[in-house]
Amino acid sequence: MIPFKLSTPLIVTCLLVFSFAFSAQAESMYVRGFYAKILKNPADKKSKIMKVERGEEVSVLEAKTKWIKIDYQGTVGWMKAKKLVKEAPMKRVTLSRKETGLVGLSRQRFAKTQAMTTVRRLKADKEGDEKNAKVDFAALIKFEKSAPSSTKAIEFFNGAI
Amino acid sequence: MGQFNRRFFALFIFFCFSTTLVYGGNRKEIKQNRPPAEYSKKSIKSEISFGRNLAAKLLANETLSSQKRLTEYVALIGRGLAENIGRPELNYYFGVVQSDNINAYALPGGYIFITSKAIELMKNEAELVGVLAHEIAHVNRRHVLKAVKFKSSENELFADAEILVGGGVFKGLQTIDVMMDKAFQVLFDKGLEEHYEFEADRLALDLMQVVEYNPKAYVDYLKVVAQNTKQSSNSIYTKTHPPLSSRIRKLEGLLKGMESTDDGTINEKRFKKYVR
Q1: What is the largest distance, in Å, between two alpha-carbon atoms of chain B?
Q2: B124 and which of B42, B62, B147, B268 could share a cystine (Cβ 3.0–4.6 Å)?
């Protein structure tokens, strides 16, 4: 049995260590969207402290249903819960040239399979099969190339907000 | 002496327990705002590849709108919106399909198409943002991929699709063939299951709030679509979507629970500048 005189500081130390460990494990969240505002008081738009850009990491201090109290590099305030996500944003995934080539290859294979499928469905509606078998990769590439850049789109979209 | 120790021990346990409860409660609130779990890079490539094949098929059967100003506007709004609320790992593409049907299609991997007739019924940018947010939600949650799955788990589903990227055996090709057929049927004939549509509706309202557009505009637009599809029970929109009345009812219920539905961008002026 630990004597009372010893056990009291021991328990206090344990509590302090536990509290410290708990605070050190503050949950991280990440800003979604172009930016999120830090407000001094929740739902008070006029109390804006600063804007934080997309993907920035914040520490969660307190969570309410619609608002989260955060610490961003020493600035403490409230952010809309909808503006924060748990996972760090993933990097953009694109198909490499080799893989796009393989898409082309799989297209050829797909065409072969379609031909076999057509044979399988000889009794089926021929017109429908022909329509289903058609693919236009040239149109797709043209369509992909015509897409605006992300920067241009963000600037345009931001113009409305 | 022993009594004191027991008291402190009980106090300590109580402290730990209550802290865990409070912390756990907060975690639960945070969890509600979590996006879907991430998948491997390989699976995402498979998804993009599958979407590209489907988009190539769509483009072979449909005509893109020749109205350059309109298509540029939709592409800019769409991509700007997707950069905000879409999955950061995907490049989203937005196209306008020339059609008299009211519809929009969300293909896997971020290929989104909306018909010219659907845009014709819109009054402002918030309505367009609402519809595009609904389609982005379908992509975010991989609804079409889930709808064409053969096996229960998503890993198994992508194991089938991965053949598109990595080459494969005949069995795999048959699988892709069937998946493509199924996906096309889902998009143009049967439609997605009701719960996917309801989920995309709910998420659309949520996403509109993230980008600070007025979520009420989306519900207003669906009401206009309901009026326009009332006469034609055989329209593609009616065939591929659950009854609009039940969707509107659910959305109005969600709007009631929102803090403020009068706030948010509408942007009628810019919309009218590009859409005539």
Answers
A1: 88
A2: B268
Set of chain A residues whose Cβ sits within 8 Å of the Cβ of B77? 153, 156-157
Residue A89 and residue A30 in contact, taking contact as beta carbons nearer than 8 Å: yes
Contact assessment for residue B163 and residue B179, using Cβ atoms and an 8 Å cutoff: no
Nearest CA in chain B to A118: B177
Lowest mean pLDDT among A108-122, A145-159, B24-38: B24-38
Q: How far apart are CA A110 and CA A108, in angstroms?
A: 5
Closest CA to A110 of B142, B186, B161, B191: B161
Q: How many residues does chain A have?
A: 161
Taking the C-alpha atoms of residue B185 and residue B166, their distance in angstroms, rounded to an integer, is 25
Secondary structure E strands in B49-185: 93-97, 104-107, 111-115
3-state secondary structure of A40: coil
Least confident of A9-18, B15-24, B191-200: B15-24
Kindly determine whether residue A132 and residue B94, on different chains, have CB atoms separated by under 8 Å: no
pTM higher than the cut 0.80: no
Q: Does A39 contact B at CB distance below 8 Å?
A: no
| DSSP codes joined into one string, B88-119 | TT---EEEEE--SS--EEEETTTEEEEEHHHH
The distance of A151 to chain B (nearest Cα, Å) reads 8
Helices (H), chain A: 4-24, 97-120, 126-133, 137-145, 150-158
- ipTM entry: 0.79
Strand spans (E) along chain B: 93-97, 104-107, 111-115
Q: How many CB atoms lie within 10 A of CB B9?
A: 12
What tokens does B104 get? 């929009």
Q: How far is A125 from chain B (nearest CA, A)?
A: 14
* Pairing between β-strand A28-31 and β-strand A67-72 as defined by DSSP bridges: unpaired
The distance of A10 to chain B (nearest Cα, Å) reads 10
Measured from the Cβ of residue B98, the count of other Cβ atoms closer than 10 Å reads 13
